[in-house]
Amino acid sequence: MGQFSISDLEQLSGIKAHTIRMWEQRYNLLRPVRTATNIRTYSDNDLRRLLNVTTLCGQGQRISQVARLTDAEISQAVLANSDNAHDYHSQVNALLAAMLGFDERQLNKLFNDAARRLGFEQMMLSIAYPLLQRIGLMWLAGTVDMAQEHMLAHLLRQKILAATDSLPGIPATARRWVLFLPANELHELALLFMNYLLRARGHHTLYLGQNLPTEGLSEVGQVYQPDAVVAVLISQPERSRVAEFAHDVQALFPGAQLVLYGPLARQEGLVLPENCVAPVLMTDFLALITENNFAPVAS
User: Are 123 and 200 within one domain?
Assistant: First the structure.
């Protein structure tokens, strides 16, 4: 079970701490416990309830009414009232609450409803990515369960694969991209979504997946001859070896654009090869692949 401070709840829910305290005192909304030093801490159940209550209040319901509902009634009300396609904050809150409750059915429905209303790509950019950023904050605070994160990641992975599989075929004359994760890197969601974005825009991709040592790329350049190579660096390689990794990949693909994505590629003072770019956001990557020099070649 997580142990959250009131500042954690404020950051994760978007509700000010003084409002949380008022709801707690007036409506008995949350049930914190006190530490030996008399500091209030909140559980996963408290955070989940707050996120769901915040979602309903954001949809116009009054806190005095919502506070009377049971957790099950609140959860059902969230599903029944998730019709505003552009209320991204409420949808992220509802998804985070479902993840904390290991409610795979609700997660699936919320993602599917959002994709139906917004389209798959916009759902990923406006809802899934902000959700993953919130979970990242929880990781830093040590307040997210690994099983919760794995459940969510597995569900998103399935959805990205299904959306990619449904795309039309790519002509042989299209721009060619190699996508891979370096040795011991297992965080695949960003790379999978990049693969989808490229294919959706008519680019050809060779997706090589997780945990690929650089030497495993030795024949790819000669046989596939890509126009660009993408690697996502979340936890690998070691920070001190990122520049060396970039130059090693450049040597294997001397004529290709190298794209490195992830926090390790954005270290202060990092010197990358001339033909290497490190987009900060997924929208920056989108801008890159729609530039004229990366537009797909007409068949």
Answer: no
Range of the domain at 103: 6-164
SS3 labels along the chain:
CCCECHHHHHHHHCCCHHHHHHHHHHHCCCCCEECCCCCEEECHHHHHHHHHHHHHHHCCCCHHHHCCCCHHHHHHHHHHCCCCCCCHHHHHHHHHHHHHCCCHHHHHHHHHHHHHHHCHHHHHHHHHHHHHHHHHHHHHHCCCCHHHHHHHHHHHHHHHHHHHHCCCCCCCCCCEEEEEEECCCCCCHHHHHHHHHHHHCCCEEEEEEEEECHHHHCCHHHHHCCCEEEEECCCCCCHHHHHHHHHHHHHHCCCCEEEEECHHHHCCCCCCCCCEECCCCHHHHHHHHHCHHHCCCCC
CATH of the domain at 85: 1.10.1660
Residue 15 pLDDT grade (very low, low, confident, very high; cuts 50, 70, 90): confident
Same domain for 201 and 105 = no
Q: What are the tens digits of pLDDT across the range 218-249? A: 889 889 989 999 999 988 899 889 999 999 99
Whether the model clears a pTM of 0.90, i.e. scores above it, the answer is: no
pLDDT tens for 129-152 read: 888 877 776 665 556 678 888 899
Both 147 and 280 in one domain: the answer is no
| Residue 1 covered by a domain | no
